[in-house]
Predict the 3D structure of the following.
Amino acid sequence: MDAVIETSGLRKVFGDNVAIEDLDLHVEAGDVFGLLGPNGAGKTTTIRMLTTLLAPTAGTARVCGFDVATRSSDVRRRIGYVQQTVAYRGLLTGRECVEIEAALYHLPGREIPARAAAVLEAVEMLPHADRRWTTYSGGMKKRLDLACGLLHAPEVLVLDEPTLGLDVQSRHNVWEFVRDRRLGGATILLATNYLDEADQLCNRVAIIDRGRVVVQGSPAELKRSVGADVIEVATPEPERLRRAIESEGWVKNIVAGDQGDLHVYVEDASLGMPAVMRLGLEHNIELGRVTYSQPSLDDVFLLHTGRELREVEMAS
Amino acid sequence: MNIEQVARETRARDDTTGGARRRWAQEVLALTRRWWIELLRERLNLASSITQPAIWLVFFGAGVGRAIDEDVIGTGDYTGFMLAGIITFTIVGNGVAGAMPLLWDKETGYLDRLMSMPIARSSVIVSRFVFQVAQQTAQILLVVIVAFVLGVRIATGPLGLVVILLTAALLTMSVTAAFSALAYAVPQHGTFFAVAGFVTLPLLFMSNAFVPLDVMPGWMEVVARANPLTYAIETMRTLVLEGWEPRILLSLAALTVAGGLCLALGTWQFRKQTGDRT
């Protein structure tokens, strides 16, 4: 398969701050590729370079075979970019916004009304097309932005945190939108800090932290790499518990969570849970809550960065 | 034909080098349409911007004119004398107000959306220019009608009025480009208004809007001669009060140079700010 987005040694420095360090991405045609990471990880900076809004400090990035630095116009004609923040459109109606942008993509004037109606229909905004933008809800504004991203039938759709700040219903609308685009054959690059979003929508994910790709692969692969199951144990004495169980053959890995709990990675939790409890009792270690789960992308993040994505989010 | 196909064909056509001028015109028109819709829906803004210059003219002519020494300004027609100054005020005021949508676009992120599109970088500034020239033509026509009612007769007649409108457009090029450059250069809109507020009045006072050049103190005349406003006022005032004088050509040439410089400055700032913003 052809690489639709290919970066090599991509780097971006702002003053003394290295925002992106040595980023290598490979997105193939038809992928829904997730850039997953906490706020400040470098997702938006990466996207701004790929959408030609920011010049890379070093390294190369190609979109549809065109270098973003030297062939930016060719790149812009092929991408549909939907920003993180809703674009402000003042006193215009939804239809006017879409028609004006259609003209900016140089669609022939006589085709514009039909095209505008088609993209508005695709996001179920046609019934509201003639209302002013200022009367739209947050979810409707986001849908309008998504519609505009489709105007020129882009080869790549770049969505930066498309569900940030949306209610559950709107969020599911956006997910539905992404799935529909994928069925239509589009390649989608999606930045998100929601684990479930990456898990639900993406066939490939790159986990980014502090400007670097920590690991990439399909969500299933990444989760398999964690181990079969995760047992979370809350205890006031995590270090003693760790020493008590770490030499056991059924323990694949132990990582400390952010709140003094232990994440114990095991082959099979149905056998591991009683074993952890038994060892705790034998060593006279007080155990609080003991739960188990299938590994999530959060466990992948924890395994590779030593931090939990949710906790990083809380802190920021 | 399927609309997806149309979009793909548009892209295929754009990939070839031809038709750049047609595409550019389409972009400028689309963006100008955006500015017009916004203005027409802001009724209060529309009414005040169109009538303000006429109100100023009445204020200056009927009020301030009484305190003015005819020997200093060189004419008994103070309203006619101030007409050029008021048109120039209007252009400067439009320049400041006209940069606001650019500031909002920048701060709300819509500018990023525009910049991610395959549009020429000059389209945004040029669309502002086209829009402002159209808006101020309406303003100028109204103020000229009011001046006519107050007894001002343009010495060069209807053709002179056309040249006045062209002169105004030429000055608008400088003013729009300069304030756009400022809008793109500042970190946030507060800075823009601080700087714009700081320069606007001196820009007017350090011109021949209120006082003719030859009665100014020497240092002030030097400053006024470096001010593009002076050349626009000089041209328009001569057309209103005197007639077709050869010095008009010199003033227009100076205005053209100023316009070219400001446009270069504006484009440079725009490229700089849109090329590498965080």
